[in-house]
Specification:
The chain has 391 residues and is of the alpha+beta class. Helices cover 44% and strands 15% of the residues. The relative contact order is 0.08. Bound molecules: flavin-adenine dinucleotide (FAD). Flavin-adenine dinucleotide is lined by residues 130-133, 138-139, 163-165, 214, 367, 370-371, 373-374, 376-377, 380.
């Protein structure tokens, strides 16, 4: 038996013993495994599964063992993913730490920072949020104004962030701050701090979809130890851009897309005639959408494979993010169209709970072409950094 075969056998046995039965079903609301200091899901299996996988380093299978990872080779990680899919295992941990902050800390952090934060990310002990956007700095991110002053033995931070997803539930923030007002990109630093620090005030903002996962965050005289700066003073812009590449890659690889498929909705609300969808116009558009979505899924799978075989993320992630947003928005538009009047409900009698979820998912999808960099900005990155077109 080859090494990989015996790895598969032992992995399968371990998963059989350690993955609770309720973690072999699709994730339901309130059971998203975000982790963090206060993580207390209604179903205790969520935490058990996270703890077991975290202790083994399998929440981040290819990270080095000394940083809390599983130390697996790319081939072993692929087998683990296949074996998890075989039993429909849920991801044990979903986290901004894994998706975007961990990989850049691995690249830009010093040894002390890596040993401190990476294992906690792997075990789901700290939940992170992303302090990038400000009221005057979204697409023009380098225009950010949050001030970070050197006070000798610490930094003092004053300013405001906005659209900070889950800021009210996160334990720590990775944050872009201005450390030099005389330069734009070259005056930005990348800094980490505890959201419980005195002077940090997150205030939820309501979204069009009804739920409120994000906040504006105010900083008033927040004291931050100097050792919490990642990378060089005024060297944060390189780190910021790299993190966005990871963010865009991860959004594309599965950030959108839960819920009932369009074809199931169409079958349920429109019905079939002679074995095919009764609305021929919608049928044509739905088929075109499914072809685009399938081609996109194959492209994402190819890019995931590249990543597993060690190829770096780069500006091409902008293409994936642009396409992911477009395809999910098309899907949600087709869904509410197929549902007809049932797709117009907000709450109350006459609308079933599944239909309401679809309507809210359609509203939520409006943000897909904004979050992680707008579609226009991603097309700009594509034209400049991938196609090499002039400014
Ligand atoms: C669901 C969601 C979650 C988010 N989570 C976070 C988070 O956790 N942390 C965080 O920091 N931010 C977060 N954001 C903010 C997001 O990154 C910004 O909204 C985004 O970068 C756009 O910035 P803006 O809203 O200021 O829009 P603007 O930058 O004001 O853009 C307005 C419009 O002008 C267009 N535009 C601007 N500049 C150009 C240009 N040069 N060329 C062409 N068109 C241009 C844009 O494409 C857009 O259509 C989130 C946003 C959403 C919707």
């Amino acid at each position: 038996m080859s090494d990989l075969d015996s790895f598969r056998t032992s992995t399968r046995a371990w998963l059989e013993t350690n993955c609770p039965a309720s973690m072999r079903t699709p994730i339901v609301e309130d059971e998203t495994p975000w982790g963090g200091r206060n993580f207390d899901p209604p179903n205790p299996d969520v935490k058990t599964w996270m703890d077991r996988m975290g202790a083994r380093g399998w929440t981040v299978p290819t990270w080095p063992k000394e940083y809390g990872g599983g130390g697996l080779s790319n081939d072993e990680a692929k087998i683990l993913a296949e074996e998890m899919r075989r039993i429909n295992a849920r991801p044990a941990l979903i986290s901004f730490g894994i998706w975007m902050f961990g990989p850049v800390l691995m690249e830009f952090g010093n040894e002390e920072q890596k040993r401190e934060y990476l294992p906690q990310i792997a075990r789901g002990e700290i939940r992170w949020c992303q302090g990038y956007s400000e009221p005057g700095a979204g697409s023009d991110l380098a225009g950010l104004q949050t001030r970070c002053e050197d006070k000798g033995d610490h930094y003092l931070i004053n300013g405001q962030k906005v659209w900070t997803s889950y800021a009210d539930r996160a334990d720590w923030i990775f944050c872009l701050v201005r450390t030099d007002t005389s330069k734009k990109q070259a005056g930005i630093s990348f800094i980490l701090f505890d959201m419980k620090s005195p002077g940090v005030d997150p205030r939820p903002i309501k979204l069009i979809s009804g739920s409120s996962p994000f906040c504006e965050v105010f900083f008033t005289d927040v004291k931050v130890p100097k050792k919490n700066r990642v990378g060089a003073l005024n060297g944060g812009w390189e780190i910021a851009k790299r993190l966005l590449q990871y963010e865009r890659k991860n959004i594309s690889s599965g950030g959108f897309g839960a819920g009932t498929s369009v074809e199931e909705l169409a079958r349920k609300y429109i019905g079939l005639k002679d074995g095919i969808l009764a609305d021929t116009d919608l049928r044509g558009r739905l088929a075109a959408h499914k072809m685009d979505a399938h081609a996109f899924a194959l492209t994402v799978a190819r890019s995931d494979q590249d990543a597993r075989s060690g190829k770096d993320v780069g500006p091409t992630t902008s293409i994936l993010k642009f396409a992911a947003a477009k395809i999910n928005q098309e899907r949600r538009e087709l869904s509410v169209e197929a549902m007809g009047l049932a797709g117009l409900g907000w709450e109350g009698p006459g609308f079933d709970a599944d239909a309401l979820l679809e309507t809210r998912a359609w509203l939520r999808s409006k943000g897909n072409s904004i979050e992680g960099g707008t579609s226009e900005i991603n097309l700009n990155v594509l034209s400049k950094r991938v196609l090499g077109l002039p400014e």
